[in-house]
Structures are given as structure tokens and as C-alpha cells.
## 1
Amino acid sequence: MTPAAEQDQTASAVMDREHAIQTGLVEALCTAVEKGDEPAKVDEILTQLVAYSSAHFMSEELLMRLVSYDDYDDHVADHIHMMDELDQMLALHQTRQPMLVLDKARSALAFLARHIDTRDQRFAHWTPPQRA
């Protein structure tokens, strides 16, 4: 395996772990709301999810910029959509509307799965154009 291929494989493994953590936080949020956990517990999970998602998206966007990724704008639009959904979940949680938080969280989980299977997979397999 070439050094570039090894580096791509390592980067892909890191992204896979980050995606597993992010989806795991959304799943934990769904479980906490379904069980009727205390609002403080739900708040803790939501806070972690927002912070983690923000950091993950920022690092992914930086990587895309570094390689002049050709689908950057559409990919980032998904990130913005997800962060907007998380902001709405926070607002719903603050107004004590757990069932609406749960609906949004389930929707976010499906959205993340589609995003990972499509946009993130495309980025993982994308090869930058060769420079002359």
C-alpha cells in the first residue's frame, strides 16, 4: 500500500469513528427522551451533541477546503441543516417539549445516516485533481 493510500485509509477510519460517536450521541438522546430521563440529563447529551457536531463539521470542512473539494458547498449545506436542527432541538428542550425533541432527534438520525452514506462516502472516495 502506498503512503498516500495508507493516509487515506487512516483518515477514513478516523471519520468513521467520529461518525459513530456523533450518531451514538443522537441515539443516546433518543433513548434518554424515550425513557423520560431528567431534563438535566437530556440537556447534557444535547450540549455534548451540539459541541461534538460543531467540531466534527468544522474539521471536515477544513479538510475539504485543503483539497479543494468540488462538492464543498452542498456538503456544507448539509452541515448547516444539521446544526439548525440541533438548535431547534435545544429550543424545544428548553421549552420542555420532549416529544418534539424526540421527533427531531429521530429525523436527525435518519438525516445523518443519509449524509454519511452519500456525501461523506463521496468525499472519502474523492481524489483531488492532479496539478500540473
## 2
Amino acid sequence: MAEQNCLFCRILEGEIPAEVIYRDDRSVAFRDINAQAPVHVLIVPSEHIESLDEASQRDEALLGHLLRVAARIANEEGLTESGYRAVINTGEGAGQSVFHLHVHVLGGRPLNWPPG
């Protein structure tokens, strides 16, 4: 169910444009407009789930699906050899700024550790 004030729900509904690079019946992947790396893609579930903390046991298959899509996107973007990072920020203190669960796929440059 879409949330009226959710940026990602509005993207999913086509109300806000995005550069969509992948779509299936459970998720959509699009380029981040505030890219933090040469490749920065967001993968969001089609269903509104506020954060990883809000996901339930019934969402386990969906969570696995999002990570498989992340690997597919990384492969299609040519990141598998150089490496990439798949990140889920949960909560404001961890950097979650849109409260709709999403996976960041980052790559195309060396990524420092620890992050942040």
C-alpha cells in the first residue's frame, strides 16, 4: 500500500520521475539523484515498508529478493570485479532519510572502511 507522503511511493506510482533501471512485481531499482559513488542505485520494494525494523517474518522472501536484485544490478553495472557495497540504513541516526525500506548499491570507486 502506497503512503501519500512517501517520496519512494510517489516514484513507484509514477508521480515523481526517476531513472528506473529495473522493475519486477516486487521491486524497482533507480539511480540515486544524490549519488555518493559513480554507481549509486536504490532498490525499493513495491510495498511500503518503513524500515528494516518494520519488516516482519512474512517479508523474509522479499528481503532476500532485494539483495538478489542488488547483486544483479551490480553485475549489470560492471561492479562485480572491482567490488560494490549493498547497504540498508535503518533509522535517522544511521542515515535513513526516506522512510521506505531501500537497498543502496554503491560502486565504481574505492569505498572506505569503516563507512560514515
## 3
Amino acid sequence: MIAYCDTEKALPNEKLMALFRAVGWTTEDGEQTHLHHFNVPFQGSSFVVSAWDGDMLVGCARVISDGAVRSVLYDLAVLPQYQGQGIGSTLLSRCMKRYPTTEWIAETTEPCVSFYGKHGFAAAAAGEDCVFMRRSCPLFDSEGARL
């Protein structure tokens, strides 16, 4: 049985790194470099929700929000062996229920577009008057992968 927690932002570094490693978001070099502050982005977020199978972190998501106008979803991840069981949908739903009246922004990859589409997200079309802009972080390589 999966248990969800939305009261703890400081997810254990080692468990968070294991989850990110399993979904291909980190490398061993990056983990060693950032071991002691891997969860700092989670602690600084407006809202964090995690999914647990016993003491194993099987999924997480975090949100940065102003609480009124805009919310940005980051780091929605589910262990591959737990995908397809509704955990990602539950994590996303819990985030959206926390800030139900805000606009939501999420950056994703092509294989995940349909997942977000099921939850009311739409890809920005060319020619719209808004553009999703990104400035790289030194903790990422030039293609956006976590170091």
C-alpha cells in the first residue's frame, strides 16, 4: 500500500538520490558532488508531496507557487517499477489541489506529454503570446541533465 506525505519537505538525500538515479536524472558524479544538499530545492519549495512503500521513496513532486496566480511543478518522479499504478497522477493531483486556482506550468519531455494532457495541461503552440523560457543552472549539464 502506497502512503503519501505532504508534511515533510526535507526528503532523505539518499532516498531522493536513489529515485532520481532510477529515472535517469542524476549521475554518480553529481550525487557525490551534491550529496549533502541534494534535497535543498525540495526544502525551499512551496509544497512537496512524496509517495512511500514502507520506508522506500517511490515517488515525489514539488511545487513553487505564489499561491494566487502561478504554480510551477518540478521533479515529478516515480520509480520505474511503480509507474503505471496511478502514483504519478496522485502526486500531481495533490499538488494541484494545494493551489487549485493557479495557472500551472510544467516542463517535460515528449514521452510524458500525454500524461500531463490527461490532467488538463496543453503544450504551448507556436505563435502563442507566451514562451516558456529557461536559463541553465550550473548543477545541470548543457542539455539539462542533472550532474
